[in-house]
Amino acid sequence: MIKLLEEGASAPQFDFLASDKPVVVAFFKVSCPVCQMTFPFLDRMSSSGTHRFVGVSQDHRGATDNFNSRFGVNFPTLLDPENEGYPASNAFGISQVPTAFLVEPSGKISWVMEGFSKAQMKDLGNRVGVAPFRPGEYVPEWKAG
Length: 145
What we know:
Blueprint: E1 23-28, H1 33-46, E2 52-57, H2 61-71, E3 77-79, H3 87-92, E4 99-103, E5 109-114, E6 116-117, H4 118-128, E7 142-143
Parallel strand pairs: 1-2, 2-3
Antiparallel strand pairs: 1-4, 4-5, 6-7
Helix pairs in contact: 1-4
């Protein structure tokens, strides 16, 4: 049974996490409607420059590039290939998407969100210094991944 890494745990060693800035790493599948809703908000927050944002797609490059174009995702997106057994997803204990982590430069995980939570997205926005939601924008409180 895969166990999701929690706040306070050490993140697995991956090159994309090596940074002098905190890294928000968000796992997704292009067919996931909750991912499609979540990623434009993540992209909005990525403009802060205070944190690195990295998407990790469980799909192939063509579908991933189409997703990024369709939903306005401008931060880097890596692939976690099924034919390799989803090594990054399994290392983080992903059992549903979207799942996002904030990994500090020390390698410790300081924030985790499974599915979509408006309150958790606001918390992340406070941490990065960019509000994820605009006034008057309808955003559900919660959506399962």
